[in-house]
From TrEMBL:
UniProt binding sites for Mg(2+): 176, 291
Cofactor note: Magnesium. Can also use manganese.
Cofactor: Mg(2+); Mn(2+)
Membrane topology: Lipid-anchor
GO cellular component assignments: plasma membrane
Protein name: FAD:protein FMN transferase
Species per Swiss-Prot/TrEMBL record: Deefgea piscis
Length: 349
């Protein structure tokens, strides 16, 4: 058995992120860091390096703050809430976190609770609440107790700035929400700072502002089984892409792959899909939607994908099935440039 988190080496970042050539673009400034357990890259075009560096540093500082605040297992505002819920006690919440929780609750309802950030205990039982995880199988009794409780954000009761839970098994985990929300937060800062041409990449979740010179920004889509990009895609102002895959945080045991995406109905890691990528059109929550919308599609599979896409206002979807076949909407297919064409390509209808 073996455990893995993501493909290593320089090709992993190429595929998860950007196809940029800073050496040939003197007006392109890039800065990288490691936040939310993944690699982050801020790219800014057309500004003097010292000005671009100031804004990139400001974005990365905010991402570090959110990482600490939202961490699911190290001491954070989220773990403080979860401990209070487990004790049956109310807890104070600041405005920012309250807005996140309420927005996530709305998306959970829209996804039929397949995106369910209240099932942190299930994620923990599968060993994914640690920086270095090893193959484990949950204790059956603990798994059954977590499933029987059916926690959701609808179990929360608000009283001004205080929140309580009627369900002690409710444990918030923003793993399927935080990166997208952070994209929108970063884009808002950059727009207010008059940084009009930028690209923010948080582990393959990407939002574009403006252009890279006279051309749209171009990003690569990670191949779920090879350490390279399978396709490239132009991104236009305000658009965001999000991907959920079984290759990001996973382990293998007895020849089977177990990913960190847990089906809240069964308590088991979702099976049947290698990756889902969606393109969210430009709007205030484009990053968050691109992150969240992939979760019900990944869990429920190809037959229900377009139903959930419609609920989230998405028209562009790409899905890689368990055998490597690709299902894609017509409009997205027209925008892609394939680098590694799939064995079979089907229209997603």
């Amino acid at each position: 058995m073996r455990a893995a988190r993501r493909f290593g080496g320089r090709y992993a970042w190429l595929a998860a992120g950007l196809l940029l050539s800073a050496c040939s673009q003197p007006q392109l400034y890039t800065q990288e860091s490691y936040v939310f357990g993944t690699r982050v890259q801020i790219s800014i075009y057309g500004l003097e390096p010292d000005v671009a560096a100031k804004h990139a540093n400001a974005v990365l500082k905010e991402l570090d703050r959110l990482h600490v605040k939202l961490h699911a297992w190290q001491p954070s505002e989220v773990t403080r809430l979860n401990q209070a819920f487990a004790r049956g006690e109310p807890a104070l919440v600041d405005i920012e976190l309250a807005q996140m929780i309420q927005q996530a609750a709305n998306y959970a309802q829209r996804s039929d609770q397949l995106f369910n950030p209240a099932v942190g205990n299930l994620v923990q039982l599968w060993g994914f609440h640690q920086d270095q995880f090893a193959p484990v199988t949950p204790d059956p009794a603990a798994l059954q107790a977590a499933l029987a409780a059916q926690p959701s954000l609808d179990d929360l009761t608000w009283n001004g700035a205080s929140v309580s839970s009627s369900n002690p098994q409710l444990a918030i985990d923003f793993g399927g929400f935080a990166k997208g929300w952070a994209l929108d937060h970063s884009a808002n800062y950059l727009r207010k700072a008059r940084v009009m041409n930028a690209l923010v990449n948080i582990g393959g979740n990407v939002i574009a502002l403006g252009k890279k010179g006279g051309e749209p920004w171009v990003v690569g889509l990670q191949h779920p089984r090879l350490p390279e990009a399978m396709a490239t895609l132009p991104l236009y102002d305000g658009e965001a892409i999000g991907t959920t895959g079984d290759y990001q945080r996973f382990f293998e045991m007895n020849g089977r792959r177990y990913s960190h995406v847990i089906d809240p109905r069964s308590g088991q890691p979702a099976q049947g899909v290698q990756a889902v990528t969606v393109l969210s059109p430009s709007h205030a929550d484009a990053g968050t939607v691109s992150d969240v919308a992939t979760k019900p599609m990944f869990i429920q599979g190809v037959p229900s994908a377009l139903r959930y896409a419609q609920r989230f206002g998405i028209k562009d979807v790409l899905m890689v099935s368990a055998n490597g076949d690709v299902y894609i909407t017509e409009q997205l297919q027209q925008r892609l440039t394939w680098l590694k064409p799939p064995p079979h390509l089907y229209r997603l209808r």
